[in-house]
Design brief:
The complex is a heterodimer of chains A (481) and B (177).
Chain A: H1 2-11, H2 16-28, H3 30-51, H4 71-84, E1 97-103, E2 113-114, E3 118-121, E4 125-130, E5 135-148, E6 151-162, E7 171-174, E8 177-181, E9 185-190, E10 197-202, E11 204-209, E12 216-219, E13 223-227, E14 230-233, H5 247-255, H6 258-270, E15 275-279, E16 289-290, E17 292-295, E18 302-306, E19 312-317, E20 325-334, E21 341-347, E22 358-363, E23 368-372, E24 376-377, E25 387-388, E26 401-408, E27 413-418, E28 421-430, E29 437-441, E30 453-461, H7 467-477
Parallel strand pairs in A: 6-7
Antiparallel strand pairs in A: 1-2, 1-4, 3-5, 4-5, 5-6, 6-9, 7-8, 8-11, 9-10, 10-13, 11-12, 13-14, 15-30, 16-19, 17-18, 18-30, 19-29, 20-26, 20-30, 21-22, 21-29, 22-23, 23-25, 24-28, 26-27, 27-28
Chain B: H1 3-28, H2 34-50, H3 61-80, H4 89-101, H5 103-117, H6 122-131, H7 138-144, H8 149-176
The chains are: A alpha+beta (481), B mainly alpha (177).
């Protein structure tokens, strides 16, 4: 009975006597009111969903009706319109976002329109442009859906957003908190386990941890993690996010078949008789340590990521004998450098009784360093203390860079390479054969070292690679074009 | 604009944007049609902004907005609902009170719609979305689907009923899990 009256009211087909009946019923009966509220609630939700829906075939773009109501409304309209960025003019039939570029993402195609449906991507990165012009890159593994062009739900994954004034108010909703953008560039990381984080590269973002009593304003360089209903400050992880301007290079690299080249080069290295270790982090048995397993340079590939001070990965290779010649190389993606040293490889046996123990790192000057215990520099080597490279290793912060150091105790030299290019040679007066053994990547127990970022394809080779070999190593493994 | 004004704009913007769907749904429960809800929403957004000074930071924006919305709905009904078939003020007050208290559950119900829509065959989903377009004409949609208008309304009732049942089930399971 009540349902029929409610439906007639919804249709607009209700008669005056029926309306009287409905009013009387709703006034007297709490259950009827509840039923009424729930049906109207479904009606609202359907309307909200339809506002973001586009007919699959032949989308029709229509102008939203403009309905001025009163002079006061018109007077105030300008200020509110400006303030709200005109969100209600949004054409109701347009997609919330469009896929600009899907790099290695098999689940999505370039140019496809995203509306309210859920998406899950297992590998790669996807660049989107919202209907309001916000540019977004989401890195796999990720699960997300748009609620509107201005509201994006991130269940899992990593996102960098570049939000123009027209899309001010763009909001990312995570399971543990929300980020509301006020015209800026920012990143959101929702790991598969652990707290979501918001990082502000530029501008201002309002962060609200779920259940927190108040919002927090974040400015350029600020970052927080949403932890159990509160937001806690943390260090900015600039390189954790693939930015929109990184996408063209990554896409071109994939299109050029770089991944195949890289695989071929790795296969060749694996049969090199001088190979000590080649960590591509693809094997199912994980290396011991504390780190996150995230996407590497290729769609769906893996790399360890070090996020917190003390995160590390343990390795024990090459301890059986000395290495007169040693090549160390790795692809890294490093965050802003703040701490004195970012550890690429620190052997545990660093001790005066162990001459030649190797420590490979990035210094606070963002140069590479290869320290060998008890080695001394040649006079006039231009260095004061340790062998350091010349060029800062982060010409473009937050991108993959290839680092290599080639040590030769017989020639008494170390040669540094950055992205395949020779950078500098440092000469030693005393040069011990290099020693390895138990070591850590990302930290060193004896002193706090850290590394904030990802490491991929770490190579230890018991011979000195030539300039050409290093160049080829970089060229084959380069994810960009 | 002074920095303080900008900051005030920002505060309003983020609160309003965050709660707009809930406020709209609240208004929808109190007026006869979706077009009426659109009308009242425009008025409400202006009033909220005008009165934002009186809103104490840290207070519950949604509850405050619901209060403003109820007042505006009643004013709207007195003004424009005069010769229409509308709910009595007394009923509206009751429903507004009860649904304000019940909003967390109603919000979960709205969220669950997405999940339930996935179970609707795609051609029917398409038809539902067509019917709910902001400016759709039911007559045309009905005709396009090969139904009479009355038959189409019947179908809409059935769909809403099925969806509501699915939503209730989904929420029960949510509580149980």
């Amino acid at each position: 009975m009540s349902t029929q009256l409610i439906e007639a009211y919804l249709d607009g087909s209700i008669t005056a006597p029926e309306m009287q009946q409905l009013n009387a019923l709703l006034l007297a009966d709490a259950d009827a009111r509840r039923e009424y509220a729930e049906i109207l609630n479904v009606d609202s939700a359907l309307a909200a969903m339809a506002a973001g829906w586009t007919k699959n075939e032949a989308p029709v773009i229509r102008q939203t009706k403009w309905r001025p109501a009163s002079p006061r409304w018109i007077a105030a309209a300008a200020s509110v319109a400006l303030l709200l960025g005109g969100w209600w003019w949004q054409d109701s039939r347009r997609a919330f976002a469009t896929v600009e570029k899907a790099a290695g993402v098999v689940e999505m195609a370039d140019g496809s329109a995203l509306r309210g449906e859920s998406h899950e991507i297992k590998g790669g990165s996807v660049a989107l442009v919202t209907a309001r012009g916000a540019r977004i890159v989401i890195e796999a593994p990720a699960a997300f859906h748009f609620e509107s062009a201005q509201r994006l739900h991130m269940k899992r994954g990593r996102l960098a957003a570049d939000v123009p004034p027209a899309a001010k108010g763009f909001t990312v909703i995570t399971p543990t908190g929300d980020a509301v953008d006020l015209g800026t560039r920012f990143g959101v990381d929702v790991p598969s386990s652990g707290a979501a984080e918001v990082h502000v590269f530029q501008g201002e973002v309002i962060a609200k941890a779920s259940g927190a009593p108040s919002n927090q304003s974040l400015r350029t360089g600020d970052a927080v993690s949403f932890d159990q209903g509160a937001s806690t400050s943390r260090e900015l992880r600039s390189s954790a996010f693939i930015q929109p301007d990184e996408m063209p290079g990554l896409t071109a690299g994939l299109a050029a078949g770089q991944r195949g080249q890289s695989d071929a080069a790795l296969a060749k290295l694996k049969s090199d008789p001088a190979l000590i270790a080649l960590l591509d982090f693809e094997s199912a048995d994980e290396l011991p340590g504390v780190y996150r397993r995230v996407q590497g340079r290729w769609p769906g590939s893996h790399a360890p990521e070090f996020v917190h001070v003390g995160d590390h990965l343990k390795l024990d290779v090459g301890g059986d004998h000395d290495w007169p010649k040693l090549t160390l190389a790795a692809w890294v993606r490093l965050d802003r450098l703040g701490a004195p040293y970012q550890s690429l490889l620190h052997t545990d046996g660093w001790d005066s009784s162990n001459p030649g123990q190797a420590h490979w790192m990035v210094t606070h000057h963002a140069t590479m360093r290869l320290a060998l215990r008890a080695n001394t520099l040649a006079p006039g080597s231009g260095q004061q203390y340790e062998a350091d490279s010349l060029t800062p290793v982060l010409p473009e912060q937050g991108r993959w860079v290839h680092l290599a150091s080639v040590y030769d105790s017989q020639a008494r030299t170390v040669r540094f390479y950055l992205n395949g290019r020779f950078d500098k040679e440092v000469r030693f007066q005393v040069a011990h054969p290099a020693r390895l053994g138990p070591a850590q990547i990302g930290n060193w127990n004896r002193n706090d070292r850290k590394l904030s970022g990802r490491v991929d394809e770490l190579l230890l080779l018991g011979r000195a690679m030539t300039d050409d070999e290093i160049r080829a190593l970089h060229a084959a493994g380069n994810p960009y074009r | 604009m002074s920095p303080a004004e900008t900051e005030r704009h920002h505060r309003f913007l983020r609160s309003f944007t965050a709660h707009e769907p809930a406020i709209r749904a609240h208004v929808r429960r109190l007026v006869p049609t979706r077009a009426d809800a659109d009308d009242v929403m425009q008025e409400i957004s202006v009033v909220l902004w005008e009165k934002f000074d009186s809103f104490r930071d840290g207070a519950d924006f949604k509850a405050w907005a619901f209060g403003v919305a109820r007042f505006e709905v009643l004013a709207w009904l007195r003004d424009r609902g005069r010769d229409r078939l509308v709910l009595d003020e007394e009923v509206i007050t009751k429903i507004a009170d009860e649904t304000t208290a019940d909003e967390p559950r109603l919000e979960r119900q709205r969220e669950a719609l997405e999940h339930c829509m996935k179970k609707v065959p795609s051609d029917q989903r398409e038809l539902l979305m067509q019917a709910y377009q902001p400016e759709s004409r039911i007559q045309e949609v009905a005709q396009g689907s090969g139904r009479t208008v009355a038959g189409f309304y019947q179908w809409l009732h059935r769909m809403r009923k099925l969806l509501l049942e699915c939503i209730r089930r989904a929420l029960t399971q949510e509580v149980a899990s």
